[in-house]
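Collaborator request, handled under Task 6.
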Amino acid sequence: MPSARPPRTVFAMDPVHLPLLFPPPLMARLTATADLDPAVVVRDFADPAAADALARAEVLVTGWGCPRLDDGLLVTAPRLRAVLHAAGSVRSLVGEALWERGITVSSAVTANAVPVAEYTLAMILLAGKDTFTHRERFRVTHAYPPPAETAATGNVGRRIGVIGASRVGRRLLDLLRPFDFTVLLHDPYVTPAEAAALGAESLPLDALLRRSDVVTLHAPDIPETYRMLDRGRLALVRDGGVLINTSRGALVDPEALTDELVSGRLHAILDVTEPEPLPAGSALYRLPNVFLTPHIAGSQGTELERLGRIVVEELERLVAGLAPRHQVLHADLARVA
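Structure tokens returned to the collaborator:
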């Protein structure tokens, strides 16, 4: 997109996210690169007040709260050439009409993978120390556990099963390298040699479930992964095993998982569930072997700046006539988040 003038650019998102995505230094870079009014943030493409800005827009900077980008947008924004998404997946955001028009789409999903992987690593380490069980007991007994109760805990030699060499999965594999873990990986698109280069042993899914002490989900939410951990597969995980889900609740059969957790056979750390959030009466809120968090593993607070930085860098590349580093291709959507 080399041009003699800055591209006309419009924000399309919930404006509450703007100050964290683009703090003053990043906003200054953005406005130096683009013809952009930071005060104009579109929430509704049909809003008459946004019509003039959209009619001139060549680039949309999108984020959480952006309306779906479909053929109606192309009528409203006929000059649109690029969408730079300051968030994660664009699967549900970008409609077929934009792909058919050949509009460039870029996503900051790589930056969003960083805190998810960090959250997962933290939870793996805490689970290895049986931290959550000890916390619950300590609150009641006020007593230290005897050695017999801690003989099986610890993070030396623990087997970590990673399902999905996605961006999050690969970042997690990097973070796991310094620890004394045995790392297992299931991903149908990764060869055994590639898995070894990532620091893991490649296994079929059922074998990974049987061998792992901790199973962590990082596969995309696509038809092939729907309920991939069903009742039969959950039964393969060893007694006392831990399931971590920071991907999507749809990957796990919720009734089967609830039954396993109510029985006390498995432990779970769940940042995502199905439905989301769980109904107030769900047993999972009360179980001592379940640690629930409200979908916080992804970018929060100060971490949003990473997403904004990628968008600024992508726009600078486009203005310089360079290809974006984080372009999303339509053909990739069949197997990525």
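The cover message to the collaborator said: "The first helix runs from residue 18 to 21. The chain has 14 helices and twelve strands. Please let us know whether this matches your experimental observations."
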